[in-house]
Amino acid sequence: MRQIRILTLITIGLLCACQRVITVHLNTGATKYVIEGVVTDQPGGASVSITQTKDFSSNNTFTGVSGATVTIEHNDSAYPLTESGPGVYTNSTLAGIPGNTYNLKVVLDGVLYTASSTMPNPVVGMDSIYVSNGVLTTKRYLTVVYTDPAGPPNYYRWVQYVNGRQEQTVFLGNDEFTDGLTVKDQLDFNNDTKDPHRDINTGDSVRIDMINLDSTVYHYWFALQQNANGSTGGASPANPTGNISGGCLGYFSAQGVRTRSLLVGK
Amino acid sequence: MRVSTFIIGLLILTAAHPAHAQSLDDVKITLQLNHASMKEALHQIERLSPFKFLASAEDVEHHNDITLAVKNESVANILRTLLKGTNLQYKQVGVNIILKRSTNATTPDTPPAKTRTPAKFTVSGTIRSARTGETILGATVHVESAPAPTAPGASSVTTATNEYGFYSLILPAGSPTGSTAGPTTSRTSSAASPASRKAGPTTGPDPYRMTITAIGFKTQTLDFTLTSDLVENIQLDEEAKDLQQVTVVAATNGRSLQSPQMGLEKLNIREANKIPVIFGERDILKTIQLLPGIKSAGDGNSGFYVRGGAADQNLILLDEAVVYNPSHLLGFFSTFNSDAIKNIDVYKGGMPAQYGGRLSSVVDVKMNEGNNKDYGVNGGIGIISSRLTVEGPIQQDKSSFLISGRRTYADLFLKLSSDSTINKSQLYFYDLNAKANYSFGDKDRLYLSGYFGRDVLAQSNIAGINWGNTTATLRWNHLFSTRLFSNTSLIYSNYDYKIHDNQDGSDFNIFSQIRDWNLKEDLQWYAGSKNTLSTGLDAIFHTIRPGEITAIGADAGINSIALPRRYSLENAVYATDTWKATDRLSITYGLRLSAFSVLGKGDYYNFNANGQVIDTLHYRSGQIVKTYVNPEPRIAASYQLNPTTSIKASYVRNTQNLHLISNNTANNPTDKWVANTNVIKPELADQWAIGYYKNLAGNKYELTVETYYKAMQNQIDYRNGANVFTNHPIESELLFGKGRAYGIEFLLKKRVGRLTGWISYTLSKTQLRINGINNNQWYNARQDRTHDIAIVGVYEINKKWNFSADWVFYTGDAVTFPNGKYTVNGDVYFYYTNRNAYRMPDYHRLDFSFTDQLKKTKKFSSELVFGVYNAYGRENAYQISFRESPTNPNVTQALETSLFRWVPSISYNFKF
Description:
Chain A is mostly beta strands. Chain A has helices at about 1-15, 215-225, and strands spanning about 20, 35-40, 45-50, 70-75, 75-85, 90, 100-110, 110-120, 125-135, 140-145, 155-160, 165, 170-175, 180-185, 205-215, 250-265. The longest helix of chain A has 13 residues, at about 1-15. Chain B has three domains: about 1-110, Phage tail protein beta-alpha-beta fold (3-Layer(bab) Sandwich); about 265-345, no CATH class; about 360-910, Beta Barrel (Maltoporin, Chain A), CATH 2.40.170.20. In chain B, the strands form 13 sheets. Chain B has a 22-stranded antiparallel barrel. At the A-B interface, helix 1, strand 1, strand 14, helix 2 and strand 16 of A face strand 29, strand 30, strand 50, strand 51 and strand 55 of B.
């Protein structure tokens, strides 16, 4: 429904909207742990990072939480993850296999957090990628072309890197209306930070990761993206429901990843 | 003796002296007429006898070419001869002979047999505007009996005309003192100035005096006697703009003290048109937001909340047809073109039993019928849109038509843009209202009315959406008798939207629709002087097409998918009685029984607690999936403490079987209407209210205080992070719970004088408890606003200039703000705890407008309206969002968006 949003923006624009930064007095509350765990089908792709929530008014530097015991289990094997940086736990040998289910166990401050995720099978990659001009703007956007396998539902997320810098917009897709088709999806983003390095320009090197998600993790990202800016449009925002039990924020995803890159021409 | 009088139109006249009249049979005259008119014949008789005739000009002017030669014949016989073959009957009152059209089976010259116990008769009729012939609905008809020996004490009854201008009152028979004649009437019709009231009949007063009041019309009084059923069709003159002659009459001009109806706000379009509005676009749905208990859905928005209910809990009817999306352009304008609208009634509580289907309110909008006397054109040019209305008679004085159109032209400015993606964009809406009525004799009238409106938003060929409502209503009014009024309606209502998308390499259309066929029958039976019964039935067949994707071309990049259509049948029967228990106590009690049947064909599902399908149920075409039956009691009572004060209480239950699933407070054309299913149950609301009503300072002011408590069941909300645009059963995205709303509303209104207006204040609370939201605890609904104030004033500076202003203040909406933030995949996201625990900033604003009456002749009048919306430029928060600072990625900030400041407007209206 992107077109409706664009039209809404035009309409609001015509109705002489104005914006200003304000100070809102927000409560400061108890902190919560945020666990973000992934297993990919690539070696060394298993990584768990643990952080904490912060007050709204503090800065955006999040320090990791050390001292957790982190394990990923598959069938009867357990793969321990060791802390390779503050709050970042990795295992260099574990590579997931599509179709298999992985379990996460984190023990932190004596509390056990567990989660389970199944890596989609097959892992779908991109047929091609290209850059073209956007609608109602002079900016350029990347389009991914992929062939969705017919049958069971597929859920995708794309991560875009421009000159190695990750775009913060969450790009999601699923095959509810495109099952079995060759799909072109333009990765639209709104550069509201006005940082020119986010935009795609001639000579940039762009890399796209296409991540195959399971249904639960897809819905986690969907909700996260919906609430990204607070109560936009009026719907009450809420924390996305993750798949980790034990009372923390975050998610655990066993996901297949495929990558493509290009150098942007004129 | 005064000269004889022919009533031409509605002139003032008073009853003549009865004297010691001679009998018509005794007075004998000699008369010769050669191709004379009836008027000449009556003049001749007057000249030759002591009798004087009273008749309405239109009754006698059709009878011409009378040739007669009699010698020494009694006047009685002459009259019998003259009136033979006409529909006129005569009655003697003293020396006055009244000629009147026969109204019932009573033969003209045989008075009904007199009975010892006072018989009861009906006085009924239709009240219309003298200028346009439009029926006046909600006019107050007040009958007071004079303390005469033959009249049953000094009591009074009041009724209001129904939605077709019809009234009927049942009264004990009453004839003037000393008169033994048959049914007689004498009219005293005036602008109800105290002077003319004193100048009433000097002897033998008529036992009844009828006072008819209606907003925007001169009050009229009429004295009559009642010895058989009487039809009084009355035409009211429009209120002159003469400032010196504003008079205050005893009868209520606005809300009724006697009627048990409470929670009702009436707005006449004439009143509404004087109040300033954004862009100068007159909009009744915005004007009603200035009344207590009715809250705006946002700055400049036509959406509204009534007594804590959600926006979809308002039943919005246009000539009885449901309007599913009553707004244009994302809610900034309503679908109601004020030129085509006659009036609007908003029921906030105590809904009469004939209404059902929504929890919070009934907004009953009635379209103009058109002028049945003369052709007229009126219109206006504003900064947003232009309007044009044409109306006129079909049968002179009997039936009429009206066509009214409106279109915006913001898109014309887009064409000026040099950017091709902008100048090929489309952005407009239009409305078309049409109505016609046709009269088949005195007892039958057909009305056909329709509405068609559409919004179009498109970016060249890349993407576009258009949406709109279509309604059509065919109605048949039939008078079975003067006491039994029937209306039968066949109604069609449709809302749909179409989206075209040709971006990202996929090319497709989306279509969605809700369509109703509705048959209604309403009967109003004026059963006696103490009871008015209404009963009826209502059957609606709903078809919902939730969404159909059609791929365009072979390489559309999307599959054509149609969500299964949903069918349902909504039936209701009702009966209600308004019982005037005593002079002071009136009670309305009734029951509406609604039955909603979910029909196949289609699959329905059972879900587990997480919203996952655990069972699929298949149904054949026409098979009943589930029927929900709900009795809805409606009880209201009023007790009049004294002539200027009354108290009222009511209880009402409402059921809602269709639900608007919206994850947005802004009106979105793609919000989905869903019907009950096996899982989605009817929403229920029970509302209790009590009220205090007082007329102050000689009826110049009205004070209304109402307080209510409303309990709601089966309320619906989305799950966190729900995906609206999905093929999966919608129930999997929904959560259910209950709600409660309570508050107190004050309204002080000044209806007369150079300065009119009101002050309204509402103190209220609205909360929800939904399983799965806010840890299952009660939380404030978004529309919970503690304080809501509106001050509205209209001041007539002089005949040329009119000034109006309003000031609005309300507590900011309850909203959810983050309590913290965290990082996922290297980006910052916000952490939320309690639902709607924060408040938007308080909202306030002042608007004003000046109306300059440019030219006013009988043939042509025009005016210029200048206005400013948000005159002191308050930056009211439309939305507060949170983001990473554009300049410093290490900081997050709150961003407030506000929409309208100092919005000037100018519009030109004309009429000829």
